Amino acid sequence: MSTATPQPHAVHTVLGSGPAGTALARELVRRGHPVRLVDRRGEGPAIEGVERFAADVSTADGARAAVADAAVVYHCVNVAYHLQVEVMPRVQEAVLAAVEASGARLVVLDTLYPYGETGGAVMTEDSPWLATSRKGRMRAELDERYLAAHRSGRARVVLGRSADFVGPGVLNSSLGAAVFPGALTGGEVLGFGDVDLPHSYTDIRDVAAGLATLGEREDGDGRVWHLPTAPAVSTREIHTLIEKRVGRPLNVVVLSRLRPFGPFDERFVAEYEEMFYQHTEPQIMDSSAFERSFAVAATPPADTVEATVTWYEAWLADR
Fold this sequence. Notes:
Radius of gyration: 19 Å
Organism: Streptomyces lienomycini
Pfam families: Epimerase
Number of domains: 2
Largest sheet: 7 strands, parallel
InterPro entries: Epimerase_deHydtase, NAD(P)-bd_dom_sf, NAD(P)-dependent_oxidoreduct
Domain NAD-dependent epimerase/dehydratase: 16-219
Protein name: NAD-dependent epimerase/dehydratase family protein
């Protein structure tokens, strides 16, 4: 692939200031881009080189204001699980209309949900979209609309799919605040489903670097890419790496059936139950196409665990 030359002073607008959006904003600044980080409040800790901006991008006016003057727009917006099926299509409609009007390229952070249950088959960009869950079907419908918008010339769009997040700043994940605080304090550590199955986890820093690369490389447009993700290992192997780093055995509570636990309340459990198949069959994501095309490598799991434990040590110290 040839490398497109990014515009040196054009604004890169990141929609959504969760772990992915914040990590991406930092990565874009590191690469020399002016960055606008958008959420509904426009508040949060100052990040050097980042303008915080308040807008509701589920509305036409909010989306237009958010993407004004941007060369590239990164859609990292997510909402509470129980609101996704209702809200995410509205966000798509508003954001697509805004980038169509402005001419900005659109980079969309996506999930593995459209593939649905795979029976343990390795997921590549060519895998069929067979989702049967409400949220999986919704994501698949949105993705087809994004790709159709690109094919029709309505907008320039590219999608980057990630496996489950892990890494600095990641709290609401199966490898997040229900795991690392307990590992550091001797408390309970959550394991979902069968922790001996291979399961792909994507380092949040690889999510950010992958999306930034797609934002800089127009030659990747018009398709789905799997963002750089280390080869799948079992969750138990991840727990072993954490044990080595923290110097104590983990007190793992394995939930073979979903129930409220730690940060995951009854409302979340009710909405997540249809996705629990991800923890009862292998979840193996192959990102080799991205890694070959853009000459990058995913962060090794041991390095991810080291960075994540270090971040949680500081996070706990500040609480």
